[in-house]
Design the sequence.
């Protein structure tokens, strides 16, 4: 059994590649079942966010190429188009990679907390689909525990830095004060909730939340004094919006160039600031060609974010030390599994000997032997039976000058040299 972490992220692939290999929530169970049915995959989980798509697999034998082939086929992409962007981490490196991802050390925003929730969602999806086995289940639980330790023992999450924070900071750079501005938020997930919180803290004038699920949009909007609309109502409200920030799981764009052109005309070409955080993108790229529109995608936020993470770098070094220690801890547990069958066989053999001798001892008592003699007989024979095979092997090791085996035996049985 071996481990594999395989995928692409914001460091290895541009957004137009990442959006082509994203997995929608609606098709996640289907994808998990299909992936786990591929030889040599024995268990699987998929993490898919705006910044990364990663496959975590338990394999019957080491063969990452089979997983790459499946990913290419599933998304109908030639392997040659996808291969340059893919990284693979086997075994020890897979454990380290998952711990770093969950702790926010591999994120666009160093130390951002959202990724841990997204990884927990990936775990729940795989658990619900029945594609997790004992190995990945244990690794996910270890990952969550280590990520919590990193948050507790370091200052990695002390600064309010995130994609949401960067988007709102950019809006302030463009507009200055936000008190007379209207923000239209498309989506109602964690990222949009963070955007809403930051906008509220920065005194946004009005907030409108559009979402496919009306109830979720209403809950989020009411929390921050805004109001909610359905996605179909966006064109009617678009002219009101100075700030548009979108993050949905829609496979197709929600805002097209024509709708924005009409909104600009109604606004008499007052500027509109847009941030498309979604992968696949919610806003057609051609919208960025329009005058009076400032359109930013996820990758464009990199420079802004970089300015806000200096304070987290020292904490990240401390986190790396914790992770290295915990990688060793998990790999030690994994190696210990190799001993489980040996231990079981040894104990079963000892149990069989003890049962046989106990039965013979009972017969001696039934035949009139004294309890004291019987106990002495039982102790002597049990000792002889249990030590016979090791004694023969140790004597042979001495004959063969196998000092390594003798030293291992001393360590195994706790024998101190005189």
Sequence:
């Amino acid at each position: 059994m071996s481990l594999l972490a395989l995928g692409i992220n914001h460091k290895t692939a541009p957004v137009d590649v990442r959006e082509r290999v994203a997995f929608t929530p609606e098709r996640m169970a289907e994808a998990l079942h299909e992936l786990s049915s591929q030889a040599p995959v024995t268990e699987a989980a998929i993490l898919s966010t705006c910044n990364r798509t990663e496959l975590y697999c338990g394999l019957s034998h080491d063969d990452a190429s089979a997983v790459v082939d499946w990913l290419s086929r599933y998304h109908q992409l030639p392997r040659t188009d996808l291969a340059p962007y893919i990284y693979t981490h086997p075994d020890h490196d897979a454990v380290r990679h998952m711990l770093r991802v969950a702790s926010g050390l591999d994120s666009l925003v160093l130390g951002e907390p959202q990724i841990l929730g997204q990884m927990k969602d990936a775990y729940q999806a795989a658990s619900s689909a029945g594609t997790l086995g004992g190995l990945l289940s244990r690794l996910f639980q270890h990952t969550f525990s280590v990520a919590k330790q990193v948050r507790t023992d370091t200052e990695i999450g002390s600064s309010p830095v995130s994609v949401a924070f960067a988007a709102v900071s950019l809006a302030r750079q463009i507009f200055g004060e936000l008190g007379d501005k209207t923000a239209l938020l498309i989506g109602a997930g964690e990222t949009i909730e963070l955007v809403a919180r930051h906008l509220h803290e920065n005194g946004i004038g009005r907030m409108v939340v559009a979402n496919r699920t009306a109830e979720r949009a209403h809950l989020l909007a009411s929390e921050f004094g805004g109001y909610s609309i359905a996605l179909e109502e966006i064109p009617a409200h678009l002219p009101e919006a100075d700030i548009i920030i979108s993050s949905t799981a829609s496979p197709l764009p929600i805002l097209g160039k024509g709708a924005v052109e009409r909104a600009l005309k109604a606004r008499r070409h007052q500027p509109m600031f847009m941030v498309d955080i979604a992968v696949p993108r919610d806003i057609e790229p051609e919208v960025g060609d329009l005058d009076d529109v400032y359109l930013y995608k996820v990758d464009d936020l990199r420079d802004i974010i970089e300015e806000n993470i200096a304070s987290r770098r020292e904490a990240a070094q401390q986190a790396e030390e914790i992770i290295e220690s915990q990688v060793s801890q998990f790999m030690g547990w994994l190696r210990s599994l190799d001993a489980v069958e040996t231990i079981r066989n040894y104990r079963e053999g000892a149990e069989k000997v003890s049962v046989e001798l106990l039965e013979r001892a009972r017969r001696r008592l039934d035949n009139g032997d004294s309890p004291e003699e019987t106990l002495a007989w039982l102790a002597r024979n049990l000792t002889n039976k249990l030590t016979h095979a090791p004694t023969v092997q140790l004597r042979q090791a001495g004959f063969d000058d196998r000092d390594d085996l003798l030293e291992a035996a001393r360590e195994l049985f706790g024998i101190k040299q005189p």
Q: What stands out?
A: The chain has a mean pLDDT of 92. The first helix runs from residue 15 to 18. The first strand starts at residue 2 and ends at 9.
